[in-house]
Amino acid sequence: MPxxxxxxxxxxSATPLWIPAWTLAALVAIFQTGPMPLYSTRTLGVAWEMWxxxxxxxxxxxxxxxxxxxxxxxxxxxxxxxxxxxxxxxxRLLEVGIGLGVLVLAARLARKLFRDDPGVEAxxxxxxxxxGYAFLFALQIMYEMLLxxxxxxxxxxxxxxxxxxxxxxxxxxxxxxxxxxxxxxMLLHVAFPFLxxxxxxxWASRHRAAWYGRGALALVAGMAVLLAWAIPASLVGGExxxxxxxxxxxxxxxxxxFDHARPWWWYAQMLPALLVPWLLWPRAWQAAAAGLSRPRxxxxxxIACWLVPIAVAFSLVSGKQLYYLLPEAxxxxxxxxxxxxxxxxRGAPAPWWLGPWPLALVLLAAAAAxxxxxxxxxxxxxxSVWYIDLAPAxxxxxxxxxxxxxxxxACPRADAAATRRIAVVSMAGLALVYVVFAHTLWPRFDLAPAxxxxxxxxxxxxxxxxxxxxxxxxxxLGRLEKPLEVLPLHGHEPWLDAHPDARVIHYVETLxxxxxxxAEYVQPFRSDWLLIERAGTxxxxxxxxxxxxxxxxxxxxxxxxxxxxxxxxxxxAH
Length: 574
Known about the structure:
By secondary structure, the chain is mainly α. It has 27 helices and 7 strands. The strands form 2 sheets. Strands 4-3-5-7-6 form a 5-stranded mixed β-sheet. A two-stranded antiparallel ribbon has the order 1-2. The model is unreliable at about 1-15, about 250-260 and about 550-574 (pLDDT under 50).
């Protein structure tokens, strides 16, 4: 029996309000800073190297074939560059568009799975849009949000049309796109809803042979698309690239991961980070319980077949990152929307103690702490460089947190209205975080000045090398046309002796007067300091030999130095 809509939701209009709300917040946030190292700069660096070389089959990073990712996102970036030229505006707009597409597909999947309850479709996009962790990663130029789009597209195809008939052609297309976005992990995200189809789909239970036969053909077609790229790419990329592409990047992460290895229970302890801000709304806990209660229809069975096995599977995989679970955030949003719709249908507004007061108190406490911060920094009670950098903007940030907290204290008691209010506050707060970050902490992340300096050195014929692990962070920002040689962490002194006139990019935790006297370029990077120094000078310093200082004009070009330094004795140090 359809649930009444009068007390909890109306059927969505042609242009739901979550579309402009999320788009505005995302656009405001994503254009506050340049590309973020190391996620966005690494992706753009690979796209730039392919573009600069005119080679679009094999991704390259710092002059070497890049086996970690497949090329669909790079191709989408290239498509925009082909029209408007190379830059970072199009990749940002692309990410905003992909994020909006994820919300649209989540709403469509909710409509298909919960046909008798329009409240789920109405509320699920608001809930998904407000997830703080998902919002932050939606604005990184990386692969996860495009993978989310492909996963939801495949699940929408499996959910079928009005008669529950799956659309296997679209399923094959979405699977192929997902495989070309992040490789075989795409199959893990969609395998369980497909394999358990007869449990949740009426059509699949009545047509098992057709479900599994056509579905298997769709999966084979998707894999064929991946192989149509991977086989020629492996021939062009060479033996090492071929081995890493076909074996290391999937099998190497499953049993004993070479990257991000963590224990099986790691996701369980990190899950709360994915659930903010809804974790701080008591009504959401009640709604989650209501969503899991009877009657358990098609939609709830689908969510169970999707989220439970994927949580177990990713927990058993050795390599773990929190953003690996972002495609499943839509399932959590639908589950919460189902519970809110069910309890909202009862007609009674939520009591005050089930309101979002914990979230409001967090915001008000943050406002108080930010208002206190400038005085604490001035008195010397706070000495962390992060808080010192944040202090100038802290009063304005405090006013923003105060306004958002008060908006939640005055939150409507009707569940649908409260959901929308919390979502808007969350999106506005996340956009505010970006604004404040851009005006305070961004100089510690902005590598564009250093990248421009490296490009100028290369153009002048000077060899530039990077000490220790290099994440491709300078290639796009400096539009570099040559790779950087990477020196190992230890045993690099012979190379420095053999190339005394090369320039070395290296990092120190504490900036000393000796660093300032010898480095040609210095800037903060995160909690460390980035230095560009003549190789012979650095080699001598490593041995403790005295060296004449570099010319002052070469040390701190004003355009690149974000702090005012009077002399070495008063240089900022961490």
